């Protein structure tokens, strides 16, 4: 919801292309449903910029420590725990980027950078320690039937004894939700290798945004009557997907994690497209729009402008997200 520099598009050009773009929305979306054939992305390498550049080498290295984890899974855990904030604290006394409680840190914290100390506030120690702890839990439950990664996550939440007792993920609602949350978030941190399914709600989100064309921009706007129905960029995308039953976070850089990330040449109408001054860090994203096809998006650009069509191909283009219900539900309410 931050203000960004204007992208200037001639009124005549946008107006003249309006009919073409809207026809393309319908055509591309319908064709996409026939092309995808239910395939899902599968790579566990990190998606572009999904982890802040300062931590990416650590996540890539330690995310391959054992077969039960991978860099995308480790990134998902760190994001859920702290939003990659090395100074995070919780009411339960959890500390640092990986949110270790003191007792767990005392047992499982390691000197990841070899500087002679174990500092829970230092990501160079905390990120390796998180990976090591995951792998230790995986060893505890290695003889349990089922998916070793899900069993490891369940052990992290409910304890290894419960996983061993129930021969898999225990029948605890909290634990099953935890496993589903992390594995869903994993998809948003992984770079997909195959074509992605179009969101079932994408067309409805576009329809909602289309009805708001011409509405004046309001920084912090959520489209409420008190705000005159006005939006900022992430307020518009949030409302568009909420209109079809998907609740997104409020700000753009958190919306980036609401699903997997198609490449530029795989974009489909309804994908969220993001812009950032830092091409290596999704936490620096400062603008978002809804892709409609033909290289255009609907967005709420900046103070003094109205919701309109804008081109996506600018020097600040960062990437895209194909919003999914599970991905959106997995996002923490605050990071």
Q: Work out the helicity level.
A: 40-55%
Mean pLDDT: 87
- The proportion of residues in beta strands is 5-15%
Largest sheet, in brief, is:
5 strands, antiparallel
Q: Give the end-to-end Cα distance, rounded to a whole number of Å.
A: 16 Å
Q: Residue ranges: pLDDT <50 for 5 or more in a row?
A: 1-43
Give, in spatial order, the strands making up the sheet with the most strands: 4-3-2-1-5
* SSE pattern: HHHHHHHHHHHEEEEEH
**Which structural category fits the helices and strands?**
alpha+beta
Give the tally of β-strands: 5
3D shape: elongated
* Radius of gyration of CA atoms, rounded to a whole number: 21 Å
Q: What is the count of DSSP helices, taking H or I runs of 4+ residues?
A: 12
Description:
The structure is a single chain. With 335 residues, this protein is of the alpha+beta class. Helices cover 40% and strands 7% of the residues. The protein contains 12 helices and 5 strands. Helix 2 packs across helix 3 and helix 3 crosses helix 8.
């Amino acid at each position: 919801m931050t203000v960004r520099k204007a992208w200037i598009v001639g009124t005549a050009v946008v107006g003249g292309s309006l009919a073409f773009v809207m026809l393309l929305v319908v055509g591309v979306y319908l064709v996409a449903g026939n092309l995808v054939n239910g395939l899902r992305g599968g790579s566990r390498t990190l998606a572009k910029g999904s982890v802040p550049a300062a931590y990416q080498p650590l996540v890539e290295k330690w995310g391959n420590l054992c077969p039960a984890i991978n860099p995308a899974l480790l990134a998902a855990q760190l994001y859920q725990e702290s939003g990659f904030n090395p100074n995070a604290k919780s009411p339960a006394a959890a500390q640092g980027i990986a949110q270790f409680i003191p007792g767990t840190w005392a047992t499982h914290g390691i000197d990841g950078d070899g500087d002679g100390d174990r500092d829970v506030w230092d990501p160079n120690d905390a990120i390796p320690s998180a990976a090591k702890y995951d792998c230790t839990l995986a060893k505890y439950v290695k003889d349990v039937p089922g998916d070793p990664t899900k069993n490891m996550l369940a052990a992290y939440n409910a304890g290894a004894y419960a996983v061993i007792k129930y021969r898999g993920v225990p029948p605890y609602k909290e634990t099953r939700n935890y496993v589903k949350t992390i594995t869903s978030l994993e998809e948003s941190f992984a770079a997909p290798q195959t074509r992605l399914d179009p969101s079932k709600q994408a067309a409805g989100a576009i329809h909602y945004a289309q009805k708001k064309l011409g509405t004046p921009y309001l920084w912090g706007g959520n489209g409420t009557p008190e705000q005159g129905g006005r939006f900022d960029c992430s307020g518009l995308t949030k409302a568009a997907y909420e209109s079809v039953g998907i609740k997104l976070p409020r700000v753009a850089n958190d919306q980036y994690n609401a699903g997997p990330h198609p490449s530029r040449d795989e974009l489909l109408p309804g994908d969220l497209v993001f812009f950032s001054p830092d091409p290596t860090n999704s936490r620096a994203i400062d603008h978002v729009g809804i892709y409609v096809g033909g290289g255009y998006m609907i967005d709420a650009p900046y103070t003094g402008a109205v919701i309109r069509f804008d081109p996506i191909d600018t020097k600040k283009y960062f990437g895209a997200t194909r919003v999914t219900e599970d991905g959106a539900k997995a996002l923490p309410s605050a990071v």
